[in-house]
Structure formats: structure tokens, C-alpha cells
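input
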Amino acid sequence: MVYKTSGVCSSAISFDIDDAGKVHDVKFQGGCSGNTQGVAKLIEGMDAKEAISRLEGIRCGFRPTSCPDQLSKALKQALGEA
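output
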């Protein structure tokens, strides 16, 4: 799935969710490379719902969202929860 982000430096996030609900192959387009690579590696193989609960609501400075928060929104959309 490819999710178009909003309100962050990254313009899109691509990822897969397998039949067991695990997150794989997360790639951010743009954004802070080190941070987005770190987030992607940390949630590799994690249950999508667990990832959502850990990432949802994270802010970037004064912005009301962040790349991790946008990933939580993308995962919710992929699961049909958005």
C-alpha cells in the first residue's frame, strides 16, 4: 500500500501487511532519513495494531502530527479502521 502523507516532510509511505497482520517493507519517501529508517526497522514484523498503538499521536515539534503518526494513520486505513 502507498499512503500519501499530510503535514510532514515525508510525501508518502509504502508498506505491506501480511495475512497475519504483521507490518513489512516500510519505506518513507522523503522526511528525515535516519529517523524514518529507524521507525521502519523498529516496526518490521510487528503486529499492525501494536504499531498503531505505539506510533499514534506522536508530534513533530509544533506540528500536530509526525512521520510515525502518519504511519499509524496509514496502517489504520489499510486495516479499514480509518
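quick obs: The two ends are 14 Å apart (CA to CA).
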